[in-house]
Amino acid sequence: MILVYVTVVLNTKNVVVLTKLSLTKTFIYSSLLLSLLYSCNSKKDSQPFKSSKTALLSKLDSNLSEEQWDSVNATSPKVIQHKKVKRNSKYKTLGWHLYSNGTVYKNYNFDLLWALSYFSYKVNPTTGTPKNIGNWKTTAIIDSAKAHNCKVFLSVSNFGSSNNATFLSNTKAQEKLIDNLVTLLDYRKADGINIDFEGIAKKDKQLFSSFVNRISKKLKKVNPNYLITLCLYANDWHYIFDIKKINTSVDFYTLMGYDYYGNFSSKAGPISPLKNSSEFGNGLEHSIKYYLKKGVSPSKLIVGLPYYGAEWYTKSENVPSKVIKYKSSPTYSTIKRIYIDSLKIPVQFNKESASTYLSFKEHNAYRQLWFENPKSLALKYDWIKEQQLAGVGIWTLGYDHGYPELWNLLAEKFSE
Fold first, then answer.
1. Which of 85, 124, 159, 205 falls 20 to 30 Å from 241 in CA-CA distance?
2. Residues near 340 by Cβ (< 8 Å), separated by ≥ 6?
3. Which residue has the higher pLDDT, 271 or 75?
4. What is the pTM assigned to this prediction?
């Protein structure tokens, strides 16, 4: 283990200067893993950019057990004791659990969750069979959720314009997927699905609507109580979601309220800005107004927010600053453990976006890292409640592992 040794100097422009820096082998490895998780290549997709999940499913080995993932992730065995609370049934709180997060769910406060979505059944676009389903058949997370009256969904994912074009034009593959879902949902006594199809080409809009209607109709025929939830893009560049045609088939919409800025950006900025601004453009406010205008009922709209950040090498300490190169997408726990607790970089708040960021200098290079913390999330939670929306979603549970403050905030805002 290499000791962390750092001298921190705060210059007159509130930019932290790191004069000496060594990191642990664990952090170096974690950074590589996170880069693998979140690296995206926007040129290969019909969308102007891919979401933070795009590269994830194509590059991770799903054959590992949860304990093996714990070893890969160097997961701390630390257990957090949560206060007993009762969720306010007025709001829907949904969290995604990524199968590669191993057993971090042992620290989840299931009492605060309306539903958990296990990510994911990755669709083979030519057959409809799963490329992987993680540890869906054996994971104890489902038993834990059920013991706390938390609903369980299986996420169904398909990324990329080519994959979506192949699958959406193949009714046989769709039927196979539906048959498999019937079996898998029944096997774990789950409550429904969360559809996450990203990078759909404009030409496949109608095919996608037909697929949503088909899968909803057939699953509800098997079990009328199954819930069908559908992920919406923060920016629907190609007008993929024909709400009028699919609305009766969808019980809840989950807005992916993140990746407004990322590895595709020419300047550093908030990945989940609240309001629209001249500095950063559209934010959650714009996305929500867009979908409400399209016909989504406020009572059916769940707003997903990120438990990760985005870091860039920048040309200056200015906000916003032009980007030299994208660096990584660290989780909240990594940001806390390395940047804030170890390196003592002060957290700054941007009023225009209601987001937090770090600005520092290392080896004569400027860096900015934007993320959400309790202060910024509290503002967004309050705003979502003021708009009388259905609730909030979390991408992804476990990215705050070892730190209780985000769970405490959920308890403050969404418990009785």
1. 124
2. 347, 358
3. 271
4. 0.89
